[in-house]
Amino acid sequence: MALLACGRAEGISRFRGTVNAFLAALAPGIAYNVVIFFLALLQKDTIVGLIRVELSLCAFLALPVISYAFAKRWNREERWLRYATASAWSQWTSLFVFVMVMAISALVLPGLANRPGFDRAVMMASQLYDLWLGMFIARCGLEISRWRAALLYGSTALFVLICYTVATLLPPHHSYLSEILLADFGAHDRMSG
């Protein structure tokens, strides 16, 4: 993950392209959503919490499903398992970067870290980094062009946006869409909803 996080394509070869490796990469995100499911059952508004979990799972699994469809269409199926494994593990990288920047800022520059909007600016920067990293992993993992990587990530983002829009429009008419747009569109949403 560190090699890929630094933009070194040889990092992709450190991941195994097996079903077990892919399932192991998905396990933390699935486990997180299972915990959130049980916490949702304890909430006052259980239905909203359960819909959040459902949306989170849809967003979390969207990239592997959509990328497989594209990999199949582009004759890159043999590269997909390694790519999907690297991608699933690397989704945690931007979260790690966000936490580290916030922690270091709080220790070194507490005045800056406590300013309104600082956390949102760091979150936006980590999301842009997450987008770059995801497209970089797609390019070196599937051996595709920048345009195809952008198409893959654009399609995934559009799918997630549609899911959140539909959930917002249907009863109980909670504003899930504004939650994702105002908070953290990207890897964190795929993991947290």
UniProtKB/TrEMBL annotation:
It comes from the Bacteria. The chain crosses the membrane at residues 21-41, 47-71, 92-109, 121-138, 150-170. The keyword Transmembrane applies. Keywords: Membrane, Transmembrane, Transmembrane helix. This is Uncharacterized protein. It comes from Acetobacter musti.
